[in-house]
Amino acid sequence: MPTLPSRPVIGILHPGAMGAALGSALKTRAGAVIWADAGRSHATAKRAELADLIAVPDVAELARRAHVIVSICPPHAAREVAEQVAAGAAGRPDPPLYVDANAVAPDTVREIAALLGPDRVCDAAVIGPPAWERGTTVLWLSGPGADAVADLLEGSAFEARVLGTGAADVGTASGLKVCFALQSKALPTVWLAMEEAAARFGVTEALHGELERTGGHAAALADVRAKAAAKGWRWAGEMEEAADALAAVDVPDGFSRAAAELYRRAGG
Questions:
Q1: Model confidence over 42-79: pLDDT tens digits?
Q2: For labelling, which of 34, 103, 134, 258 has a CA lying 20 to 30 Å from the CA of 17?
């Protein structure tokens, strides 16, 4: 694991809602928290501004300057972001510590560790919403640098917990995230499947009536539908990664594949 200075430069790729919150949480222990603004949206730039993060031109510049890089992006982009960092950091005598905080399968994180170096990648899993106050969100860490990242977050809005610190522990945090996502993301899609089937059978009104009559929580259906419409494009990728992870350990993955498809439909 690289030795970190007392106040490291930390790069965030990219400051969406979660990335901006993480960047803000890390500011008290960092010399600077930077982000790459090339090709990013106005909304991303505004979040970064509100979190008081410092813009640099692109990922290559961020990879050259940062001592720690936190990747927090849509699951489908995790490998591409790691490849961009690898290209930008090539030739550095002190490669950065790369914290992969994406909702991806353990094997995906291990592939990223093989790309960037087995002693340079820390596996991370966020469970909870973007945290601006303590008590809502835990960042689970495993692999090289886990203790160092936990120290950087000491006293912040994110509660850091370490599962292991060896290179063999890379994938453990992502495995926990996969298991948790089965109830937080896959299970709710039963409501989406029920709603879609009811519409095709022509019994939507009757179904809603039965849910109200029997205490079947019709409000929960509306809540899941609204969340899926807003985030289905992102959660579909997470469910595909979860399915890959389950298949890799010989656990049936069909419901995660179905959840991915339902999110694609809802978010499309």
A1: 888 898 988 999 999 999 999 999 999 999 999 999 99
A2: 258
